[in-house]
Amino acid sequence: MVIKSVNLETVCGITSDFPVHDLPEIAFAGKSNVGKSSLINALMNRNGYARTSSKPGKTQTINYYNINDAMYFVDLPGYGYATANVQVKAEWGKMIEKYLNTAGSLKAIFLLIDIRHDPGENDLDMYKWIRHNGYEPIVIATKLDKLKRSEVKGKLERIRTVLGNKEDLRLFPFSSETKQGRDELYDFLDELLGNTPE
Ligand SMILES: Nc1nc2c(ncn2[C@@H]2O[C@H](COP(=O)(O)OP(=O)(O)OP(=O)(O)O)[C@@H](O)[C@H]2O)c(=O)[nH]1
Ligand SMILES: [Mg+2]
Predict the structure, then answer these.
(1) CB of 122 closer than 6 angstroms to any ligand 1 atom
(2) Are the C-beta atoms of residues 130 and 103 closer than 8 Å to each other?
(3) Which residue, 85, 107, 133, 174, is most buried by CB atoms nearer than 10 A?
(4) pLDDT tier at 84, thresholds 50, 70, 90
(5) Which atom of ligand 1 lies nearest, measured to the CA of 176?
(6) How many CB atoms are closer than 10 A to CB 18?
């Protein structure tokens, strides 16, 4: 996959209708601060185009990035943002739920999990919720650069185990810092969209 153009085309808040179009969507879900916007930047090859922050709760809207006029990356607000108040949490939950229920051309959901930690209760809920909606989550284990190489295999196995040991689970280790794992994700996206590899 070669990135030729990127454009933040639509930003949806709680009351917005989602855009109607014919292109496939790839959604990025996961806990606040896990690295969704950073992964999108790494894939788009644009530093800082999707806003990132070391403070959780940066992305509070659903942001649609048009990629090559061929697909959308959809950056979802993160869950599990500890300091958000109850109402804000409920609204984000509703927004994500509405998105999963209504996104017409949703092709895949990337569920991001920090490679250093076991998936938490929120991650498991999200994992199950995605499956409940008829999708097989593609799990991205983020912040790969934070581990010693000798630790990687064991941590990936932990994530598999906690998610229920599904044999066909797609699990990709990734680092936005070093871009490790990016080529594998480009290949996966090509496979998903039925592109012939470039
Ligand atoms: N070392 C390292 N840091 C990362 C990586 N990915 C993200 N970060 C850092 O983690 C923090 C959060 O990243 P974001 O991409 O903003 O996370 P997010 O999931 O979009 O968070 P919300 O928008 O709050 O839901 C930032 O300080 C990033 O620089 C990574 O692969 N390696
Ligand atoms: Mg974000």
Answers:
(1) no
(2) no
(3) 174
(4) low
(5) 31
(6) 17
How many angstroms separate the CA atoms of 148 and 153, rounded?
A: 10
Q: Is the CB of 63 under 6 A from ligand 1?
A: no
Whether the per-residue pLDDT at 56 is higher than 90: the answer is: no
Q: What is the pLDDT of residues 102-111, one digit of tens each?
A: 877 899 999 9
pLDDT in tens, 8-18: 999 998 788 89
The domain segmentation of the chain, as residue ranges, is 6-193
Q: 2: number of CA atoms within 13 Å, CB side? A: 4
Contact 6/65 with Cβ under 8 angstroms? yes
Judged by its nearest atom, the ligand closest to the C-alpha of residue 53 is 1
How open is the CA angle 41-47-48, to the nearest 5 degrees?
A: 85
Residue 196, judged by CB atoms within 10 A of its CB (0-12, 13-18, 19+), counts as exposed
Nearest Cα residue to atom 6 of ligand 1: 35
Say yes or no: CB of residue 179 within 6 Å of ligand 1: no
Burial 53-69 (b: 16+ CB within 10 A, else e): eeebbbbbbbbbbbbee
- CATH H-level, domain 6-193: superfamily: P-loop containing nucleotide triphosphate hydrolases (3.40.50.300)
Instruction: Tell which one of 8, 32, 33 to mutate to probe ligand 1, the residue whose CB is within 8 A of the most ligand atoms.
Output: 33
Q: Atom 11, ligand 1: which residue's CA is nearest?
A: 54
